[in-house]
Amino acid sequence: MSEEDKTLIEILEENNPIDIIKYINFVRAPKCGAIATFSGTTRDTFDGKAVVELRYEAYVPMAIRCIKSICTSARETWNLNLIAVAHCLGPVPVGGTSVFIATSSVHRVDALDACQYLIDELKATVPIWKKEVYANGEVWKENSEFLERRTEIGENFQPGPFNSSRPRASPKPGPLNRSSEKKGCCGNKVRVDEERSNKKNDDNTGIHQ
Amino acid sequence: MSEEDKTLIEILEENNPIDIIKYINFVRAPKCGAIATFSGTTRDTFDGKAVVELRYEAYVPMAIRCIKSICTSARETWNLNLIAVAHCLGPVPVGGTSVFIATSSVHRVDALDACQYLIDELKATVPIWKKEVYANGEVWKENSEFLERRTEIGENFQPGPFNSSRPRASPKPGPLNRSSEKKGCCGNKVRVDEERSNKKNDDNTGIHQ
Q1: pLDDT digits 0-9 by tens, B75-87
Q2: Is residue B127 very low, low, confident or very high in pLDDT (cuts 50, 70, 90)?
């Protein structure tokens, strides 16, 4: 089974909720003793404001390319069997799942640590934007971790699995030495002018610049 | 909502498979942005031998008491909203889930790190035993992490969330200072002689001693 067959990445168009069991069953395998998952869900408040829903947009080919890249990095770092990553586009109501990651491995440390790494990297490097819809307005938000990573890049930062801002759990010692050789695919903001020009009533605050 | 209402612990009798969605939905909440889960599944090989299934036994009241204790420790260490822990008894076939943990929190670091802590502590301190059933025989196994912890206790070890053998991901600095004050409920092997005496054809290799 090739690495590609062992990795399922889906960016789901509007009104296709994430089928968690489908992805858990994708990573389940007889040789594995562990499955770790992470669900990102819409919170009802942000900075003290009542959130009605979040709406996600992505330049899908680039988002998939970036997610593939971080999955490859994860496989270089941990002993993983199967990986599934799904992200919704369109509106996600309060309590709903917008992103889901599942990893499987023989021993649990690999699945658990890789799952944590994958969501950290996804938030920091994958070009998916969200609009926060409040009771009294809405605003496009760039993920703060994306901004941090961009700032780091501006300071000659090399994107890689061990360069994000918080420490990792139990990484294998080897890959730490390789981080200076690695480059993420989406370390800087992707220009999607054609999407912006097609977008009507865009109240974008500078995300698709 | 009391801490007790926010924690669901279930030890499932034989032939009651773990309903993963039930536990994920238990921890899902409007105020949370993150759900982390861990599934422990039966591997098809162990030490090069083909495994047919695992069979679990527990002294249920003590197992529940111990799981409650580690959930309380987790809440003292991370900002968690809801926790669910389920463990099967009886046979679990290859690929099946024997243990499932779900945690939810406002920010993902808490759910992810607590989930990892909970499975580490469950394996190391909760009195649940497994029989590995191979194609050509079967053997009761004490979890190696349980044995390690017992050895540590023999060396005047204080059970607590930061005393297990591998490093934690991003713990808050505070609780590290409290570890010497903490005691797990099940740091040493539980005596369940009455269960042993009721057990027929017991090929136990010294687990219920």
Answers
A1: 999 999 999 999 9
A2: very high
pLDDT score, position B4: 84
In a mutational test of the B interface, the residue from A21, A41, A99, A101 whose CB has the highest number of chain B CBs within 10 Å is A41
How far out from the chain centre does Cα B144 lie?
13
- Whether B38 sits inside 8 A of A36 (CB atoms) is yes
The answer to whether residues B139 and B207 touch, using CB atoms and an 8 Å cutoff, is: no
Reduced to 3 states, what is the DSSP secondary structure of residue B147? helix
Cα separation, B194 vs B181, whole angstroms: 33
Task: Give the Cα separation of B92 and A115 in Å (integer).
Answer: 25
Is residue A38 within 8 Å of A115, Cβ to Cβ?
yes
Q: Which residues on chain A are in Cβ contact (under 8 Å) with B20?
A: 20-21, 24
ipTM of the complex as predicted: 0.77
Round to whole Å and give the CA distance between A120 and A113.
11
Does position B146 have pLDDT exceeding 80, yes or no? no
pLDDT tens digits, A96-124: 999 999 999 999 999 999 999 999 999 99
A179 near A161, Cβ under 8 Å? Answer: yes
pLDDT of residue A139: 87
Q: From CA A176, how far away is CA A171, in angstroms rounded?
A: 8
Range of the structural domain that residue B188 is part of: 7-198
Q: Which 8-state DSSP code applies to residue B6?
A: T
Stretch 34-73 of chain A: residues touching chain B, C-beta under 8 Å: 34-45
Residue A201 lies in a domain: no
Cβ-Cβ contacts under 8 Å, B44 against chain A? 30-31
Q: Does residue A136 lie in a domain region?
A: yes
- Tell me the C-alpha distance between A142 and A153, whole Å: 16
CATH number at residue B15: 3.90.1170.40
Segment B42-69, tens digit of pLDDT:
999 998 899 999 999 999 999 999 999 9
Domain annotation covers residue A48: yes
Interface contact A41-B28, CB threshold 8 A: yes
The answer to whether residue B92 is domain-embedded is yes
Q: Which residues of A touch B170 (CB under 8 A)?
A: 166-167, 169
Average pLDDT over all residues of chain A: 78
Domain count, chain A: 1
